[in-house]
What we know:
The protein is of the alpha+beta class. The protein contains 4 helices and 10 strands. The strands form 3 sheets. It has a 6-stranded mixed β-sheet, with helices on both faces. A two-stranded antiparallel ribbon has the order 1-2. The longest helix is centred in the first third of the chain and has 17 residues, at 42-58. The radius of gyration is 16 Å and the shape is globular.
Amino acid sequence: MSVIVAKWTIDEYHRMIDAGILSDRKVELLNGEIIEMSPEGELHAYSSGEAGDYLAKLLAGRAKIRYAKPITLPNNSEPEPDIAIVQPLGREYRQHHPYAENIFWLIEYANSSLEKDLEEKSKIYAEAGILEYWVVNLKKLHLVVYREILDGEYAAKLTLTGGIIQPLAFPDVSVAVEQIINS
């Protein structure tokens, strides 16, 4: 007997949200599947909040920092990355969540969700054309940087524990890795 998974479109997912079907669940849509999100522990909440505040100061007037809010991607995915660095489109976001073309880069903080963030989400983000994706491994306190999309996957993967990194979208901005991983 084979198992058939029901796949959902973004429109169907939005209708479920509007109808209140998912109101008591912390979920996200990944490749058409509604996935339960891991609870956020203290280290996760603290680290992502501090890093977001740091990036907001660094990128003031150039980008908007969104904390754990949905983004809408063309591959029937509507994840809620811990930090999304997006174009500052103001009121336009009243009409839609940021699309891939509005996103400079994404950051996920991972402890129990590490495998999902490193594997599944990296593929979803690369497929959608998001040029840069960072994962903070909270267990080992290091930053994994994904770049260079090739055939729908990230071809370059760099692991950092310190130093400075320049985001692709802002090569003139120096980001202290320690401020992102909060070591």
